[in-house]
Design brief:
By secondary structure, this protein is mostly helical. The protein is built from 2 helices and no strands. It has one domain (2-52). Helices cover 58% and strands 0% of the residues. The relative contact order is 0.09.
Length: 62
């Protein structure tokens, strides 16, 4: 029982760590806000771009 439990926990921990590493790598390679020297990638960091975009003011014709 103890060995199995330890193995499962270890697998979960490594899995989480790998995910975090991948996320960090993704953010620092593609996100223009984190690294300005990197070229802007359309797909990467789309959420951040959406947050930063302001609504366009409508021109009212009278």
């Amino acid at each position: 029982m103890n060995e199995n439990f330890f193995k499962k926990n270890f697998v979960i921990q490594t899995h989480v760590k790998k995910k975090k590493i991948k996320l960090a790598y993704y953010i620092f390679t593609y996100c223009p806000f984190h690294l300005k020297s990197q070229k802007l990638n359309d797909r990467a960091c789309a959420k951040n771009e959406k947050k930063k975009k302001k609504k366009k003011k409508r021109t009212i014709y009278t």
